[in-house]
C-alpha cells in the first residue's frame, strides 16, 4: 500500500471517529526545535538519563541537574507550536479530538489552542520545594538557573521543576484521567513516540484490548505496530496536518 493510500485510510478512520485521543511524545515537538531523547542524535545519546534526569541525581547534586536543564531551557521556552500541534487543536475545535495525552513538558499543545491536555510527565510552568511543598512559578527562578545555581526555597530546600524525573511515579490523578480517556476513545492516534517509557507505553493497550483502532505516526517501529490499523512513517509536522485536512474535508463532504 502506498503512502497516499495509508494516509487516505487514516483520514477515513478519523472522519468516522467521534472520540479520538492523541498520545504524543518527544518526536511531536522535534519540528519545533526541541530535541528528542532516543533518536541517534537525541539527548540520551549525549547523556546518561540516570545521571542527569533522575530524582536520585537531583537530590545528590541539584546544581548538576540544573546545568543539564539549562541547556534545554532556551529550546523549550522559545519554541512555538508546529503544524502538528495546530492540526490537533483544529481537530479538537471541530469536535473530533476528545483529549491529548502527552509525555512532553513544553506546553506547546496548550499554546496551539488545545484545551484537554493530560501532561503525564509534568511541565516547566512551576517548581516545588520537596522540603516544604511550596510551589512557585518557574519564571522568577530563571536568573538563578541561567547563572548555574540551583534555585533555593526560603526554607533552605531546593526547588524542583514540576516535571517527572526518572525514579518518580507519574501523578496518579493525571494518569487515571489519561487512562480513562484512552479506554473510552474510539480511535487512538499515537504520534512522535517510540513507546519505550513505562508506564505510558502500556496505555495504548487499554484501547487495543477493546478493539479500538490505532493510527501510528512515527519514523521508527514500535511494539504496537502489529496492533495498529494504519502506520504512517512520516514527519508529524506534515502527516498530522495532512491527516486533519483530509479527515475534516471528508467529514464535511459526507
Automatic annotation (TrEMBL):
PROSITE patterns assigned to the protein according to its UniProt record, in alphabetical order: SIRTUIN
Catalytic residues in the record: 121 (proton acceptor)
Stretches assigned to the Deacetylase sirtuin-type domain: 1-254
CDD domains: SIR2-fam
EC number: 2.3.1.286
Catalytic EC class: transferase
Keywords on record: Metal-binding, NAD, Transferase, Zinc
InterPro entries registered for this protein in UniProt: DHS-like_NAD/FAD-binding_dom (IPR029035), NAD-dep_sirtuin_deacylases (IPR050134), Sirtuin (IPR003000), Sirtuin_cat_small_dom_sf (IPR026591), Ssirtuin_cat_dom (IPR026590)
Protein name: protein acetyllysine N-acetyltransferase
Source species of the chain: Candidatus Viridilinea mediisalina
Amino acid at each position: 500500500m502506498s503512502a497516499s493510500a495509508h494516509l487516505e485510510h487514516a483520514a477515513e478512520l478519523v472522519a468516522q471517529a467521534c472520540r479520538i485521543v492523541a498520545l504524543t511524545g518527544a518526536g511531536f515537538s522535534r519540528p519545533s526545535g526541541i530535541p528528542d531523547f532516543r533518536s541517534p542524535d537525541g539527548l540520551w545519546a549525549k547523556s546518561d538519563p540516570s545521571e542527569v534526569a533522575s530524582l536520585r541525581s537531583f537530590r545528590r547534586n541539584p546544581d548538576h541537574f540544573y546545568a543539564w536543564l539549562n541547556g534545554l531551557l532556551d529550546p523549550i521556552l522559545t519554541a512555538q507550536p508546529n503544524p502538528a500541534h495546530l492540526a490537533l487543536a483544529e481537530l479538537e475545535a471541530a469536535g473530533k479530538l476528545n483529549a491529548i495525552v502527552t509525555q512532553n513538558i513544553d506546553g506547546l499543545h496548550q499554546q496551539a489552542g488545545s484545551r484537554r491536555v493530560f501532561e503525564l510527565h509534568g511541565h516547566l510552568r512551576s517548581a516545588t520545594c520537596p522540603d516544604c511543598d511550596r510551589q512557585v512559578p518557574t519564571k522568577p527562578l530563571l536568573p538563578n538557573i541561567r547563572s548555574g545555581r540551583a534555585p533555593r526555597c526560603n526554607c533552605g530546600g531546593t526547588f524542583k521543576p514540576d516535571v517527572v524525573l526518572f525514579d518518580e511515579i507519574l501523578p496518579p490523578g493525571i494518569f487515571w484521567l489519561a487512562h480513562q480517556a484512552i479506554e473510552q476513545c474510539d480511535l487512538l492516534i499515537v504520534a512522535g513516540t517510540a513507546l519505550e517509557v513505562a508506564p505510558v507505553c502500556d496505555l495504548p493497550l487499554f484501547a487495543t484490548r477493546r478493539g479500538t483502532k490505532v493510527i501510528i505516526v512515527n519514523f521508527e517501529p514500535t511494539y504496537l505496530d502489529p496492533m495498529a490499523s494504519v502506520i504512517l512513517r512520516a514527519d508529524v509536522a506534515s502527516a498530522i496536518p495532512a491527516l486533519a485536512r483530509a479527515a475534516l474535508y471528508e467529514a464535511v463532504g459526507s
